[in-house]
């Protein structure tokens, strides 16, 4: 009896794995076609100055509109793209599309201050990222100071020494660098000090339990202090409540991003926002609301 059960479980486990493997294989095949068939597009999430609610930039977030499956979120396909090196092409597409879009908004006189683009560690490892960034800047005409690249802490710390050269090269192009999902990796302080980065983005897993979570509050306070002691700007991700915004503002955290201010918007939505508010006027609508 027990043996039968065990066997059943084993079979179930096997077929479950097979489903997953099949799904992966399916998505990988589809992803190869997605680029050519124009199924990828970007969303833009506003980033604000916490002190006055002003729009200071936006982060470009990759989306995939599959003809049958509908919109597939990046968490589903980026890991697959990273395993197959397809990420190099996807990342290149995202960088070019984001810079082109930002430049178009600038040409229209919509004062977007900065566009942030996510970069996978695989792109640093297996492609000429510095060459690509330099090319895209020339090609789109976007002034380099408007481009920020986000690299996750886990990757940056794992690769140590080898990365510094690439990051230095990127800084030489005039772009700024942010460490994404900060607090989730194992940062060596000695190493962090030597990295040519401009900003830390506090991971939203800490922000979501603020202000009542004591551990999260302590960690967040420490990250802001660490960032400032290294002369880095600090941005808090995933702010959903006014209380979280107030808490972080109180710590001296400079910038924020999250559903409280705005969800990621499609290009038309972002353009409408820019048109309506035309930076550098403060985006009062994006300020945390108090009361009903
Ligand atoms: P990320 O770079 O940390 O991006 C922030 C994610 O948090 C986005 O998810 C955003 O929609 C979500 N978010 C923002 N504010 C809130 C909030 O207030 N509450 C909650 N619950 N979530 C919030 P998204 O768009 O699903 O992207 C997930 C991840 O996929 C990104 O995390 C990034 O690591 C990766 N990704 C997205 N686009 C690209 C890309 O072009 N290249 C690479 N390499 N990775 C990308
Ligand atoms: Mg990011
Ligand atoms: Mg992040
Ligand atoms: Mg993330």
From TrEMBL:
Protein name: EAL domain-containing protein
Residue stretches making up the EAL domain: 24-278
């Amino acid at each position: 009896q027990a043996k039968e059960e065990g066997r059943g479980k084993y079979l179930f486990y096997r077929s479950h794995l097979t489903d997953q493997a099949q799904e992966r294989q399916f998505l990988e095949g589809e992803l190869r076609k997605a680029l050519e068939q124009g199924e990828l597009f970007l969303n833009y999430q506003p980033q604000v100055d916490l002190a006055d609610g002003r729009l200071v930039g936006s982060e470009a977030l990759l989306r995939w509109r599959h003809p049958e499956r509908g919109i597939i979120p990046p968490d589903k396909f980026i890991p697959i793209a990273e395993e197959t090196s397809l990420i190099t092409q996807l990342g290149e597409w995202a960088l070019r599309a984001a810079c082109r879009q930002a430049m178009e908004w600038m040409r229209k006189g919509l004062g977007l201050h900065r566009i942030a683009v996510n970069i996978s560690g695989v792109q640093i490892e297996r492609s000429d990222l510095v060459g690509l960034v330099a090319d895209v800047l020339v090609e789109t005409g976007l002034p380099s100071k408007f481009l920020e690249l986000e690299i996750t802490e886990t990757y940056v710390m794992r690769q140590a020494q080898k990365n510094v050269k690439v990051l230095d090269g990127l800084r030489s192009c005039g772009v700024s660098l942010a460490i994404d999902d900060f607090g989730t990796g194992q940062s060596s302080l000695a190493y962090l000090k030597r990295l040519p980065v401009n900003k830390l983005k506090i991971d939203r897993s800490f922000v979501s339990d603020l202000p009542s979570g004591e551990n999260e509050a302590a960690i967040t306070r420490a990250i802001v202090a660490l960032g400032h002691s290294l002369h880095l700007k600090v941005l808090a991700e995933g702010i959903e409540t006014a209380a979280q915004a107030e808490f972080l503002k109180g710590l001296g955290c400079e910038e924020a991003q999250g559903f409280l201010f705005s969800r990621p918007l499609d290009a038309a939505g972002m353009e409408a926002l820019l048109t309506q508010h035309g930076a550098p006027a403060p985006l009062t609508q994006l300020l945390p609301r108090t009361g009903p």
